[in-house]
Specification:
heterodimer; A: 2 domains; B: 3-stranded antiparallel sheet
């Protein structure tokens, strides 16, 4: 097994990683998507090696945009791998009789042999959770697409008037809340026929595409 | 009357409908990847193999079909699927691990009705899962072996 150079700056996940699904799976997971429920950050567990009783996984944070582009075959596995947030990689060696208690350590350098092949693209036939992952990513993407119909300064003005929008973790647009002093979330009268537009006192939220906003169990 | 109790029944009982009702007894010659030597894992289901360790991230990765053996309905389908998965290995050294785990030969095995239960072969790649009855020893049922790799190290194209 490859010798690793470590940073000894260990992230603490505190069991906060929830598995969304596998982007690649045959005879078990190869590339698996997780979300840190504390902050919504996404991580990939990427199987890179095995020795005796351990399987070695690289773990890296990734943007939903990059995963979507990988799924759409706009970028390769290698490009996805390199697009990690802050160029930070962790690893863990997982032993099967202790699946829920593995230690994650930051790498100083990723060994060359752990980089994926250059020309590999996503293959839907290897992705048993395709629908679930795509739905999850699109919902996640929509969270980041709230576009103001006014300038930044006017948004700031609204904020100073205690009209700060508080977003619930549920990712459900219909559950978006404003604080107790703010007007209720209402549909803008001029855009009422368009169910992709909502208005909160001057800030229009445009839902970019048709997603399933069904509440997660 | 042979014993028709399924092997690994104690594990299968942890799942609902495992194996499912569409699994039937079959007979004929079918194919499975094996190692050249009589490797102890040649006829062990994935979920039973402890060395090398199965690739798991949590217990949900242990599926019902992991207690069955992978077979193919023809040598050519067995070769094609091997070649496909071999090429899918995302890093060069993982190809060597794949060869160690899956073997480098195709065994043609005579399966009889009293050997166990199988689902329908996949229409695309001919793969199916086979749950053995308790006293079956496939090692003794190998009729022939076919090398997957040619002398130059490349995968054979045809059988």
């Amino acid at each position: 097994m490859e010798q690793l150079t470590l940073k000894y700056k260990n992230p603490v996940f505190n069991n906060s990683l929830v598995r969304i699904g596998d982007l690649i799976n045959y005879d078990g997971p190869i590339l698996s998507l997780f979300e840190d429920v504390r902050n919504g950050y996404l991580y990939l567990f990427d199987w890179v090696d095995r020795i005796e009783q351990y399987n070695r996984w690289l773990i890296f944070q990734i943007r939903s945009k990059d995963i979507l582009e990988f799924i759409q075959k706009k970028i390769t596995y290698l490009e996805l791998f390199k697009n990690t947030v802050k160029n930070t990689y962790y690893f863990t060696d997982i032993i099967n009789n202790n699946l829920n208690n593995y230690r994650v350590i930051q790498l100083e350098i990723v060994p060359e042999k752990y980089y994926p092949n250059a020309n590999d693209y996503f293959d839907k036939t290897d992705c048993p959770s395709y629908d679930k992952i795509v739905s999850f990513l699109l919902n996640k993407k929509s969270e980041n697409l709230y576009l103001p119909n006014t300038s930044i300064s006017s948004i700031n003005n609204h904020r100073t008037q205690s009209q700060t929008v508080i977003r619930k973790k549920s990712r459900n647009l219909n559950e978006m809340q404003v604080n107790s002093n703010s007007p209720r979330l209402t549909r803008h009268p001029l855009t009422a026929p368009n169910k992709n537009r909502y208005d909160i006192t001057g800030i229009t939220i445009i839902r970019r595409s048709e997603f399933n906003y069904k509440k997660h169990a | 009357m042979l014993n028709k109790k399924l092997k690994y029944k104690q594990f299968l009982e942890n799942y609902t409908d495992c194996p499912s009702e569409d699994f039937k007894e079959i007979s004929g010659n079918f194919c499975r990847w094996i190692s050249i030597n009589d490797y102890e894992n040649n006829f062990k289901p994935l979920n039973i193999i402890t060395n090398p360790p199965q690739r798991l991230l949590n217990d949900s990765d242990k599926l019902c079909m992991g207690y069955g053996l992978s077979f193919f309905d023809s040598p050519q389908n067995a070769l094609n699927r091997y070649s496909t998965l071999f090429e899918k290995q995302k890093r060069a050294h993982l190809k060597e691990i794949f060869k160690t785990d899956k073997g480098t030969q195709i065994a043609v095995i005579k399966i009889e009705h009293e050997d166990g239960l199988a689902n329908e072969p996949n229409a695309t790649n001919g793969h199916f899962t086979f749950h053995e009855y308790e006293l079956v020893e496939f090692k003794e049922k190998i009729k022939s072996r076919i090398n997957i790799f040619a002398d130059d190290g490349t995968i054979n194209i045809e059988i």
